[in-house]
Design goal:
By secondary structure, this protein is mainly α. The chain contains twelve helices and no strands. Belongs to the binding-protein-dependent transport system permease family. CysTW subfamily.
Length: about 280
Amino acid sequence: MTLSARTAWWLALPLALLMGIALLLPFGWRAAAILVDCATQGDGCAIGDLTSDGYYLEAAWNTLWLSTLSALIGLAIGLGAAIALVRSPRLAHPVTLLASLGANFSGVPLAVALLLLFGAQGVITVAMQALGWTPWIDLQGQGGLLLAYVCFQAPLATLLLIAPVRLLDHGLQDAAATLGAGPVLYWRRVGLPLMLPSLVEAFGLLFANAAAAFATPFALNGTAAHVLAVRIAALVSGDIFAQPELSALLALLLFAMLAIVIGLSRLGAARLRKGLA
Protein backbone atom coordinates (compact mmCIF):
# COMPACT_ATOMS: atom_id res chain seq x y z
CA MET A 1 0.00 0.00 0.00
CA THR A 2 1.34 3.41 -1.02
CA LEU A 3 0.51 6.50 1.05
CA SER A 4 0.59 10.03 -0.22
CA ALA A 5 2.94 12.47 1.49
CA ARG A 6 -0.02 14.38 2.94
CA THR A 7 -1.58 11.23 4.42
CA ALA A 8 1.77 10.18 5.88
CA TRP A 9 2.17 13.58 7.58
CA TRP A 10 -1.33 13.35 9.07
CA LEU A 11 -0.63 9.85 10.38
CA ALA A 12 2.64 11.06 11.93
CA LEU A 13 0.99 14.09 13.55
CA PRO A 14 -0.10 12.35 16.82
CA LEU A 15 3.44 11.08 17.42
CA ALA A 16 4.90 14.50 16.58
CA LEU A 17 2.51 16.19 19.03
CA LEU A 18 3.36 13.65 21.73
CA MET A 19 7.09 14.19 21.18
CA GLY A 20 6.65 17.94 21.28
CA ILE A 21 4.53 17.98 24.44
CA ALA A 22 6.39 15.27 26.37
CA LEU A 23 9.96 15.92 25.23
CA LEU A 24 10.74 19.09 23.30
CA LEU A 25 8.53 21.48 25.30
CA PRO A 26 9.91 20.51 28.75
CA PHE A 27 13.50 20.53 27.49
CA GLY A 28 13.05 23.88 25.79
CA TRP A 29 11.43 25.37 28.87
CA ARG A 30 14.14 24.10 31.20
CA ALA A 31 16.91 25.24 28.85
CA ALA A 32 15.44 28.75 28.71
CA ALA A 33 15.02 28.80 32.50
CA ILE A 34 18.66 27.75 33.02
CA LEU A 35 19.93 30.43 30.63
CA VAL A 36 17.85 33.13 32.36
CA ASP A 37 19.05 31.90 35.75
CA CYS A 38 22.70 32.06 34.64
CA ALA A 39 22.21 35.51 33.13
CA THR A 40 20.95 36.82 36.47
CA GLN A 41 23.08 34.82 38.93
CA GLY A 42 26.38 34.44 37.07
CA ASP A 43 28.61 31.62 38.33
CA GLY A 44 26.08 30.56 40.96
CA CYS A 45 23.81 28.94 38.38
CA ALA A 46 23.64 25.31 37.24
CA ILE A 47 26.12 25.81 34.40
CA GLY A 48 28.64 27.22 36.86
CA ASP A 49 28.11 24.23 39.17
CA LEU A 50 28.66 21.86 36.25
CA THR A 51 31.83 23.45 34.87
CA SER A 52 33.44 24.30 38.21
CA ASP A 53 33.23 20.75 39.56
CA GLY A 54 34.71 17.87 37.57
CA TYR A 55 32.47 15.39 39.40
CA TYR A 56 29.56 15.68 36.97
CA LEU A 57 31.79 16.04 33.93
CA GLU A 58 33.41 12.75 34.98
CA ALA A 59 29.95 11.15 35.05
CA ALA A 60 29.38 12.42 31.50
CA TRP A 61 32.72 10.98 30.40
CA ASN A 62 31.94 7.62 32.06
CA THR A 63 28.59 7.54 30.26
CA LEU A 64 30.25 8.35 26.95
CA TRP A 65 32.99 5.71 27.06
CA LEU A 66 30.84 2.99 28.65
CA SER A 67 28.14 3.48 26.02
CA THR A 68 30.64 3.57 23.16
CA LEU A 69 32.66 0.54 24.27
CA SER A 70 29.61 -1.58 25.19
CA ALA A 71 28.03 -0.73 21.82
CA LEU A 72 31.18 -1.77 19.93
CA ILE A 73 31.56 -5.01 21.89
CA GLY A 74 27.85 -5.72 21.48
CA LEU A 75 28.12 -5.15 17.73
CA ALA A 76 31.06 -7.55 17.45
CA ILE A 77 29.25 -10.28 19.39
CA GLY A 78 25.92 -9.61 17.70
CA LEU A 79 27.37 -9.69 14.18
CA GLY A 80 29.04 -13.04 14.82
CA ALA A 81 25.82 -14.44 16.29
CA ALA A 82 23.73 -13.10 13.39
CA ILE A 83 26.05 -14.67 10.80
CA ALA A 84 25.95 -18.01 12.64
CA LEU A 85 22.15 -17.93 12.89
CA VAL A 86 21.68 -17.15 9.20
CA ARG A 87 23.93 -20.11 8.34
CA SER A 88 22.04 -22.42 10.75
CA PRO A 89 18.31 -21.83 10.13
CA ARG A 90 17.28 -24.54 12.61
CA LEU A 91 18.81 -22.56 15.46
CA ALA A 92 17.42 -19.22 14.31
CA HIS A 93 14.04 -19.39 16.05
CA PRO A 94 15.14 -20.56 19.54
CA VAL A 95 18.22 -18.32 19.59
CA THR A 96 16.21 -15.31 18.38
CA LEU A 97 13.75 -15.96 21.20
CA LEU A 98 16.59 -16.09 23.72
CA ALA A 99 18.09 -12.92 22.25
CA SER A 100 14.74 -11.16 22.63
CA LEU A 101 14.67 -12.18 26.29
CA GLY A 102 18.29 -11.13 26.77
CA ALA A 103 17.74 -7.72 25.20
CA ASN A 104 15.02 -7.05 27.78
CA PHE A 105 16.86 -8.75 30.65
CA SER A 106 18.24 -5.60 32.22
CA GLY A 107 17.75 -3.72 35.44
CA VAL A 108 17.19 -5.59 38.69
CA PRO A 109 17.00 -9.14 37.19
CA LEU A 110 20.34 -8.69 35.41
CA ALA A 111 21.95 -7.16 38.50
CA VAL A 112 20.77 -10.06 40.67
CA ALA A 113 22.06 -12.60 38.14
CA LEU A 114 25.48 -10.93 38.01
CA LEU A 115 25.67 -10.70 41.80
CA LEU A 116 24.84 -14.41 42.09
CA LEU A 117 27.69 -15.16 39.67
CA PHE A 118 30.36 -12.54 40.36
CA GLY A 119 29.37 -10.94 43.68
CA ALA A 120 31.39 -11.31 46.87
CA GLN A 121 29.64 -14.64 47.56
CA GLY A 122 28.85 -15.43 43.93
CA VAL A 123 29.24 -18.91 42.49
CA ILE A 124 32.14 -18.07 40.17
CA THR A 125 33.86 -15.87 42.77
CA VAL A 126 33.73 -18.60 45.43
CA ALA A 127 34.92 -21.23 42.93
CA MET A 128 37.89 -19.06 41.89
CA GLN A 129 38.82 -18.44 45.53
CA ALA A 130 38.62 -22.18 46.25
CA LEU A 131 41.08 -22.78 43.40
CA GLY A 132 43.42 -20.15 44.78
CA TRP A 133 42.71 -17.66 42.00
CA THR A 134 42.04 -13.97 42.50
CA PRO A 135 38.57 -12.92 41.28
CA TRP A 136 39.07 -10.64 38.30
CA ILE A 137 35.60 -9.09 38.01
CA ASP A 138 34.65 -6.25 40.35
CA LEU A 139 30.96 -5.47 39.93
CA GLN A 140 31.40 -2.29 41.96
CA GLY A 141 33.82 -0.81 39.41
CA GLN A 142 33.57 0.41 35.84
CA GLY A 143 34.51 -3.05 34.54
CA GLY A 144 31.46 -4.52 36.27
CA LEU A 145 29.23 -1.89 34.68
CA LEU A 146 30.74 -2.63 31.27
CA LEU A 147 30.05 -6.35 31.72
CA ALA A 148 26.44 -5.61 32.70
CA TYR A 149 25.95 -3.33 29.70
CA VAL A 150 27.37 -5.90 27.28
CA CYS A 151 24.96 -8.51 28.69
CA PHE A 152 21.97 -6.62 27.29
CA GLN A 153 23.73 -4.92 24.36
CA ALA A 154 24.89 -8.11 22.62
CA PRO A 155 21.40 -9.72 22.38
CA LEU A 156 19.92 -6.46 21.09
CA ALA A 157 22.71 -6.18 18.49
CA THR A 158 21.96 -9.74 17.38
CA LEU A 159 18.30 -8.88 16.81
CA LEU A 160 19.21 -5.71 14.92
CA LEU A 161 21.72 -7.41 12.61
CA ILE A 162 19.92 -10.63 11.68
CA ALA A 163 17.84 -8.93 8.97
CA PRO A 164 20.78 -7.08 7.31
CA VAL A 165 22.86 -10.28 7.27
CA ARG A 166 19.97 -12.16 5.63
CA LEU A 167 19.73 -9.48 2.94
CA LEU A 168 23.32 -10.08 1.81
CA ASP A 169 23.48 -11.76 -1.57
CA HIS A 170 24.87 -15.25 -0.96
CA GLY A 171 25.93 -15.33 -4.59
CA LEU A 172 28.64 -12.80 -3.73
CA GLN A 173 30.25 -15.24 -1.30
CA ASP A 174 30.03 -18.03 -3.87
CA ALA A 175 31.65 -15.77 -6.45
CA ALA A 176 34.39 -14.78 -3.99
CA ALA A 177 35.03 -18.45 -3.18
CA THR A 178 35.26 -19.23 -6.90
CA LEU A 179 37.93 -16.53 -7.23
CA GLY A 180 39.88 -18.07 -4.35
CA ALA A 181 38.82 -15.73 -1.52
CA GLY A 182 38.29 -17.37 1.87
CA PRO A 183 35.60 -16.37 4.38
CA VAL A 184 37.87 -13.88 6.17
CA LEU A 185 38.81 -12.09 2.94
CA TYR A 186 35.17 -12.11 1.78
CA TRP A 187 33.93 -10.45 4.95
CA ARG A 188 36.79 -7.95 5.01
CA ARG A 189 36.46 -6.88 1.38
CA VAL A 190 32.77 -7.52 0.58
CA GLY A 191 30.55 -8.45 3.53
CA LEU A 192 31.56 -5.80 6.06
CA PRO A 193 31.56 -2.89 3.56
CA LEU A 194 28.02 -3.87 2.52
CA MET A 195 26.98 -4.21 6.17
CA LEU A 196 28.62 -0.96 7.26
CA PRO A 197 25.51 1.28 6.97
CA SER A 198 23.49 -1.14 9.11
CA LEU A 199 26.35 -1.41 11.61
CA VAL A 200 26.56 2.39 11.93
CA GLU A 201 22.81 2.69 12.54
CA ALA A 202 22.86 -0.18 15.02
CA PHE A 203 25.73 1.52 16.85
CA GLY A 204 23.61 4.65 17.31
CA LEU A 205 20.74 2.63 18.79
CA LEU A 206 23.04 0.64 21.07
CA PHE A 207 24.78 3.81 22.26
CA ALA A 208 21.43 5.36 23.17
CA ASN A 209 20.32 2.15 24.87
CA ALA A 210 23.39 2.17 27.13
CA ALA A 211 23.61 5.92 27.77
CA ALA A 212 19.99 6.11 28.95
CA ALA A 213 20.24 2.97 31.12
CA PHE A 214 19.37 3.67 34.75
CA ALA A 215 17.98 0.51 36.34
CA THR A 216 21.03 -1.70 35.70
CA PRO A 217 23.77 0.59 37.12
CA PHE A 218 21.53 1.66 39.99
CA ALA A 219 20.63 -1.93 40.89
CA LEU A 220 24.32 -2.91 40.85
CA ASN A 221 25.90 0.03 42.68
CA GLY A 222 23.11 2.33 43.85
CA THR A 223 23.94 6.03 43.72
CA ALA A 224 27.65 5.13 43.66
CA ALA A 225 27.25 4.26 39.96
CA HIS A 226 28.91 7.29 38.39
CA VAL A 227 26.92 7.70 35.17
CA LEU A 228 24.65 10.52 34.05
CA ALA A 229 21.31 8.71 34.46
CA VAL A 230 22.05 7.85 38.10
CA ARG A 231 23.41 11.33 38.83
CA ILE A 232 20.24 12.90 37.41
CA ALA A 233 18.04 10.68 39.58
CA ALA A 234 20.16 11.41 42.67
CA LEU A 235 19.86 15.16 42.12
CA VAL A 236 16.09 14.92 41.65
CA SER A 237 15.48 12.73 44.71
CA GLY A 238 18.05 14.62 46.74
CA ASP A 239 20.41 12.30 48.62
CA ILE A 240 21.45 15.37 50.60
CA PHE A 241 19.30 18.11 49.06
CA ALA A 242 17.50 18.32 45.73
CA GLN A 243 19.07 20.32 42.90
CA PRO A 244 16.42 20.41 40.15
CA GLU A 245 18.27 23.01 38.06
CA LEU A 246 21.46 20.96 37.91
CA SER A 247 19.53 17.75 37.24
CA ALA A 248 17.74 19.49 34.36
CA LEU A 249 21.08 20.64 32.95
CA LEU A 250 22.48 17.09 33.13
CA ALA A 251 19.33 15.81 31.42
CA LEU A 252 19.88 18.37 28.65
CA LEU A 253 23.50 17.22 28.37
CA LEU A 254 22.40 13.59 28.06
CA PHE A 255 19.74 14.57 25.51
CA ALA A 256 22.32 16.46 23.44
CA MET A 257 24.73 13.51 23.62
CA LEU A 258 22.05 11.10 22.38
CA ALA A 259 20.81 13.47 19.66
CA ILE A 260 24.32 14.05 18.31
CA VAL A 261 25.31 10.36 18.24
CA ILE A 262 22.00 9.17 16.75
CA GLY A 263 21.95 12.02 14.24
CA LEU A 264 25.53 11.36 13.13
CA SER A 265 24.86 7.63 12.85
CA ARG A 266 21.83 8.24 10.63
CA LEU A 267 23.68 10.73 8.44
CA GLY A 268 26.72 8.46 8.22
CA ALA A 269 24.59 5.46 7.28
CA ALA A 270 22.77 7.49 4.61
CA ARG A 271 26.05 8.65 3.06
CA LEU A 272 27.45 5.12 3.12
CA ARG A 273 24.33 3.76 1.40
CA LYS A 274 24.58 6.48 -1.23
CA GLY A 275 28.19 5.48 -1.83
CA LEU A 276 27.18 1.83 -2.27
CA ALA A 277 24.35 2.68 -4.68
